[in-house]
Amino acid sequence: METLHVQTDTKQYPVLIGNKIITDLSPLIEELKPAVTSVLILSDETVGALYMDKAVESLKGLNQPVHTFVVPGGDGEKSFSNYYNSLTFALEKGLDRNSLIVALGGGMIGDLAGFVAGTYMRGIRFIQLPTTLLAHDSAVGGKTGINHPLGKNMVGVFHQPEAVFYSIDFLDSLPLPEIRSGFAEVIKHALIQDEEFYDYLKGEISDLSDIPPEKLSYILKKGISIKAKVVSQDEKEKGLRAILNFGHTLGHAIESESGYGTISHGDAVAIGMRFALQLSEELGDTNLHYKEISNWLKHFNYPSVPSKLDAERLLGAMKRDKKSTSGRVKMVLLEAIGQPYVKEVEDCTLLNALKKFLMTDKEK
């Protein structure tokens, strides 16, 4: 087991990475001060069927009551109704200000459970127990929230967990599309901060369905370390943390305009990264090897932009993104691999770039 530490202005907490480390969950809970009075494990139907019994079993030594609540699966379920239902269940079970929520699942559950914890009785503690590769990004950093029909992650709070338990054995059941979705965020971390890590990924990972445990552990550690370093310097996204949105401005627009759950978060971000790379080359007069990186992403079967989406529609969604200011779109671009910057881009420039990108994307 390896332990990383995330340090922000408001909290320091460990990220534990290893095989079958869920056995360490109960001892950590017992050490929390003030003492935990009850535990609520929040999960979705898919993950709950696989791992809820194991999670409950790991907590059987606690003297406090352990409750479980399951919501439907899928990013479309990161909704007001499931937020409300989770709060209602917590109230019915008598959770108090010293209770603890455990988020058992992928990014959707982590965001939902974290938001429930961050707002229940004005904030109670929670622990992330991620079960997807994608959650290596969402489980660290304290961003929590739910989707609104007009935009992704538009309602939420910053609420840091007490700990993150990344038990690698939970990834064994992931289908290939879920692995691909998570790997997109791994690529993002490499592109914005670490060219050597990018070279490692290109040289060492050729088949997403067969990543050896030692390489998977290394990938997780590197990705989490990169995010932790950024978050430690800018917890609430006032400046530097914005670079973590590389690929997300168009990615979120594609997700919302396609209908949440129609395209995976990672697939949408991969499209967004390709667009950001192409735009970076056009605006910065630099060679980022867009075609090479684009072909590499295509090798892993990342999709093209859904055919029903057009440039005007996507631009409208990008202007509604929470990172936009007064309707002006801010893009995370690259000067070089590992050297990101944020630039406000004029609507006409973005629209022309989107039209060009969609045209070339549909030709492939």
Mean pLDDT: 93
CATH architecture annotation name of the largest domain: Up-down Bundle
SSE class: alpha/beta
Classified in CATH, the superfamily of the largest domain is Dehydroquinate synthase-like - alpha domain
Helices and strands, in order, run as EEHEHEHEHEHEEEHHHHHHHEEH
Radius of gyration: 20 Å
Number of helices: 13
Give the strand line-up of the largest sheet.
Answer: 1-2-9-6-5-3-4
Provide keyphrases for this structure.
364 residues, alpha/beta, Rossmann fold, Dehydroquinate synthase-like, alpha domain, 7-stranded mixed beta sheet, two-stranded antiparallel sheet, 13 helices, 20% strand, globular
Q: How would you describe this structure to a colleague?
A:
- The chain has helices at residues 25-31, 45-58, 80-92, 107-119, 135-138, 176-193, 195-204, 213-233, 248-258, 265-284, 290-299, 311-319, 347-363; strands at residues 2-7, 12-18, 39-44, 66-71, 100-105, 125-130, 143-148, 151-158, 163-167, 329-336, 339-345.
- The strands form three sheets. The chain has a seven-stranded mixed beta sheet with strand order 1-2-9-6-5-3-4, with helices on both faces. A two-stranded antiparallel ribbon has the order 7-8. A two-stranded antiparallel sheet has the order 10-11.
- α4 links the parallel β5 and β6 (125-130).
- The protein is α/β, with parallel strands linked by helices and 364 residues long.
- It contains 13 helices and eleven strands.
- α6 (176-193) runs antiparallel to α7 (195-204), α9 (248-258) packs across α10 and α12 crosses α13.
- The chain is 46% helix and 20% strand.
- It folds into two domains: 2-173, 3-Layer(aba) Sandwich (Rossmann fold); 178-363, Dehydroquinate synthase-like, alpha domain (Up-down Bundle).
